[in-house]
């Protein structure tokens, strides 16, 4: 399951959001909201899902929003630089497992401080939730 033995936990974050809140933001701000919140790869996936079923698109944005909030809590920054919505993406490994993918200044900042970030996502009819564990950086 792990490439190497897991290290200690450096941070934990969780977020729970009402999907209707994201639906309202999308209705009010449309594509500007999507571009502000989602990274480039997430935007492509969102477009595909929305095209097939608009509600699937809303749920996708809600889960990614929760993931970004949970991650920002786990690393202790909140939404302060270098943390930015679009610099943290939750994508899927070929196995389907969700994984954290960072970019820009956030990636550099994170890699100097932490090890792997583990993420779990779930949703129900009206809620989306994310849970993140950030491992301590291994001493190599």
The total number of structural domains is 1
Amino-to-carboxy terminus distance: 20 Å
CATH architectural type:
Alpha-Beta Complex
Main sheet: which strands, in order across? 1-5-4
The number of helical elements comes to 5
What is the residue-mean pLDDT, rounded to a whole number? 92
For the largest beta-sheet, the strand count, sense and barrel status come to:
3 strands, antiparallel
Helix content: 40-55%
CATH fold descriptor: Ribosomal Protein L22, Chain A
Radius of gyration: 15 Å
Pfam family, one: ACPS
Catalytic activity: apo-[ACP] + CoA = holo-[ACP] + adenosine 3',5'-bisphosphate + H(+)
Function: Transfers the 4'-phosphopantetheine moiety from coenzyme A to a Ser of acyl-carrier-protein.
Domain 4'-phosphopantetheinyl transferase: 11-110
């Amino acid at each position: 399951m792990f490439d190497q033995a897991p290290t200690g936990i450096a941070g934990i974050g969780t977020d729970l959001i009402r999907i209707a809140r994201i639906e309202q933001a999308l209705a009010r701000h449309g594509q500007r909201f999507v571009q502000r919140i989602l990274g480039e790869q997430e935007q492509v996936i969102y477009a595909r899902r929305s095209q097939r079923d608009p509600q699937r698109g809303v749920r996708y944005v809600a889960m990614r929003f929760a993931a970004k909030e949970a991650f920002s809590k786990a690393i202790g920054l909140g939404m302060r630089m270098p943390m930015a919505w679009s610099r943290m993406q939750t994508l899927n490994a070929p196995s389907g497992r969700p994984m954290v993918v960072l970019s820009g200044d956030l990636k550099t900042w994170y890699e100097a401080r932490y090890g792997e970030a583990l993420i779990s996502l779930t949703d129900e009819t009206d809620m989306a939730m994310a849970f993140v564990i950030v491992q301590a950086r291994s001493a190599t």
